[in-house]
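Case study 2.
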Amino acid sequence: MTAPVPADLISRLKAVLGEGGWSQDPDRLAPKLLEWRDRWTGQTPFLALPGSTADVAAVVGLCAEAGVAITPQGGNTGLVGGQIPQGEILLSTERLRAVRDVDALDDVMVCEAGVTLQAAHAAALAKGRRFPLDLASQGSATIGGVVSTNAGGTAVLRYGTTRDLVIGLEAVLPNGEVWNGLKRLRKDNTGYDLKQLLIGAEGTLGVVTAAALKLFPVMASRATAMVGTDSPQKALDLLARAKDAAGGGVEAFELISRVGVDFALKNIADQRDPLAGRHDWYVLIELASGEPGSAEAAMERLLARALEDGLIADAAIAQAEAQARAFWSLRENQSPAQKPEGATWKHDVSVPVSRVADFLDQAGAAMRAFAPGCRICAFGHVGDGNIHYDVLRPEGAPDAPHAARRDEGSRIVHDIVAALEGSISAEHGLGAMKTAEAARYKTPVELAAQQAIRAALDPKRIMNPRVLF
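Prediction:
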């Protein structure tokens, strides 16, 4: 827990933020102090609700002067606890909701940090463009949050992570100064790229207040399919074929275990089994093309040959938008579907795509030996090597014994990931959950470099002090 916040600082913050710019109402604070899976709860003496970049600068400047810590928060959709304060000032970007510009010639959109991902999608589409970052939490996740965590999502295979989609940033640095880096340049080779330090820094190097984001054309054809197969290796073989068949048009390639399908059918309303029979593994595939009819034709060729060659056992191509949405709903509800099933060890890991099947085999054997009867729900963006690997308590067993072994079980999973030259945090960040453990997998050189960068930009360590190194 951080040191108490001086009363005079709170008075000064109230004065600079004005009416509507702050709250100490317990009911107003409550939803911001709870992680949506109920794993982390926090506390704060003061919620700052700045309405402009200047307001953010004033808050950070006053806190820097007083040496008081700040936890920035966007939509509170994070899964590793980095957005939950433990006594710090809580700075929410929820009022920074302006879409400042959408330029179809530059293919750039400038959004403030509190704009939701869903609102950004709508603003781009209104100008005939697409912002391709897709997350299940798009209605709540904000631009500042996805930038600060370098969010991934379902379209990384084609468009990259958030890091690849940001052209420029505006941010308030830990001393309260505003850095305006909202350039629209695709090429700028004039020294260190400060925006790349801020992307994925989880609020430790400053508060992102706006971002210039890359836009893309809306595709003329799109095909979505769900297939059933009996092994992750066959899914990987299908991925290789899909890349060749679509000529770079694979937008999503999502793996789902049968366990996850069963959880969704049981716990989420209006879900349907995607295929007639049961299969050990399912793959959700989406192809897109700028040529009308091209994606549909490529999907039909791909799946017909895969069926003939025994790579897949069954397939369904969405015949309407509603059917495509139903396929995606099954995938996007994998995490919510687990919540009623009890205690879970959650892992957001990545390995080289070629090692995904090896990881699933090795981790499965290790977990079944360590926690007999556990239920393994593996799903994720197999096209980019990112697997959400969740280990649930045995059916009918109490939560407490399984939860008590979380750290030990996760260490086993993460050691397997490290041995396969992977990462223990593919897209969620480190937050409060993984910061200490991540140090085990960093080289001394890398740790020292990261610590030096942070010390240079935030010598008082006031920005999200419990997160990162």
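The chain has a mean pLDDT of 94.
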